[in-house]
DNA sequence: CCTTGTGAAAGCATTCACAGCC
DNA sequence: GGCTGTGAATGCTTTCACAAGG
């Protein structure tokens, strides 16, 4: 597959494809192109996604449930250990085969297996406490969906996802003429 | 409120705050700071978010429901008109006061009121058809949560949100020492 | 004083364009 | 011939640092 074809399929430029891949080594064959299967393997390894990383979700509401059901996580190097909530009627159930437990069990579960990433899918009010609990049990990477800025020690990495901002960005480039700096979609079909 | 305080509250640098705001004019008072209320008004207006933009969600599953419940959308210039689905047991219900309707009603609803943005929160398999339907009824801005690259005419703007990618990015900067700027070049042992 | 507003510098990312190689 | 790999050029963003101004 040529860089031009990869570009087409992923919505980026061919120069970008070649430049990016060049950072990983000389992966293609001149006059021929790239071997996608090998590329996929190499990139997965390079990103450290071969060992299924243990992930927990705090908040088993609609968003937490949606994330648990989102197929593709498991195929991309992640494994959900559990969802945590405080609502009694949810605890003990399962979502997409993932158990829903009371947040108080976090300590116990974290002792058993190191949690690589914690996802916060709680309402805004509960997000900071969720973060504190995660940090308490040794989680150092947090993906936060709640619309608040979390206060965390510098050893902890937080990645903020604000769904409303996505809508706002889209709304901004609404009237035809304005063009976004990052114009293209990201490919997902090769899995 | 000083640029320093705004920086603290939002998680960016103070220089960034000042530079960004400077593009909108001289909004602060030297020696004093900025008036947040006025800033908020101005920015909302500048982004064209004063007129509550009509938004529809296709897919009333967990993700669609989570989005409908996500408070803050309405406070940020958006108004959900309806959720659309094909599952009979969902149709006729409401989610956060928003009616759930059959996708076939899209045409009718779009004729009544111009839809500014369509959100796709369907499974991957249904995403392209959802996009086609939205485009059919005149929607030109699409926020896509399904992990597929949508094929759309150039007049339509698509913004892709891939939740798994967020996790992957976070996972990459896990081992403390890894720095965003410098990808570690590695020998190509595969391929 | 204190904080903004902003040129200049630095840093980072994308695109160009072409030599090198299959 | 065709396509990769890559320096060089371009463009964009962030940071620096300080004069201007309440």
Description:
The structure is a homodimer of 191-residue chains. Helix content of chain A is 35%, strand content 17%. Chain A has 191 residues and is an alpha/beta fold. In chain A, strands 3-4-2-1-5-6-7 form a seven-stranded mixed sheet. In chain A, helix 1 (3-10) crosses helix 2. The two termini of chain A are 16 Å apart. Mean pLDDT of chain A is 88; it is low at 176-191. The interface between A and B is large, with 66 and 61 residues. Chain A binds a DNA duplex (22 and 22 nucleotides) through residues 2-4, 13-16, 18-19, 21-22, 26-34, 181.
Summary keywords:
homodimer, 191 residues, alpha/beta, seven-stranded mixed sheet, 7 strands, disordered C terminus, DNA-binding
Write the layout of secondary structure elements.
The structure is a homodimer of 191-residue chains.
Chain A: H1 3-10, H2 14-22, H3 36-46, E1 53-58, H4 62-69, E2 78-85, E3 94-95, E4 98-102, H5 106-112, E5 117-120, H6 124-136, E6 141-144, E7 157-160, H7 163-172
Parallel strand pairs in A: 1-2, 1-5, 2-4, 5-6, 6-7
Antiparallel strand pairs in A: 3-4
Chain A binds a DNA duplex (22 and 22 nucleotides) through helix 2.
């Amino acid at each position: 597959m040529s860089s031009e074809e990869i570009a087409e399929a992923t919505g980026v430029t061919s120069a970008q494809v070649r430049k990016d891949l060049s950072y990983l080594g000389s992966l293609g064959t001149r006059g021929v192109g790239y071997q996608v299967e090998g590329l996929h393997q190499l990139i997965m390894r390079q990103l450290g996604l071969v060992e299924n990383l243990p992930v927990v979700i705090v908040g088993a509401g609609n968003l937490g449930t949606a994330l648990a059901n989102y197929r593709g996580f498991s195929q991309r190097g992640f494994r959900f250990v559990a969802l945590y909530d405080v609502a009694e009627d949810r605890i003990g159930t399962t979502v997409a085969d993932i158990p829903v437990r009371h947040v108080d069990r976090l300590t116990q579960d974290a002792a058993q297996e190191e949690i690589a990433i914690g996802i916060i899918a709680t309402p805004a009010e509960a997000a900071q406490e969720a973060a504190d609990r995660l940090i308490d049990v040794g989680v150092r990477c947090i993906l936060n969906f709640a619309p608040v800025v979390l206060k965390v020690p510098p050893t902890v990495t937080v990645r903020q996802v604000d769904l409303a901002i996505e809508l706002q960005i889209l709304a901004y480039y609404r009237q035809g003429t304005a063009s976004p700096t990052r114009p293209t979609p990201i490919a997902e079909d090769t899995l």
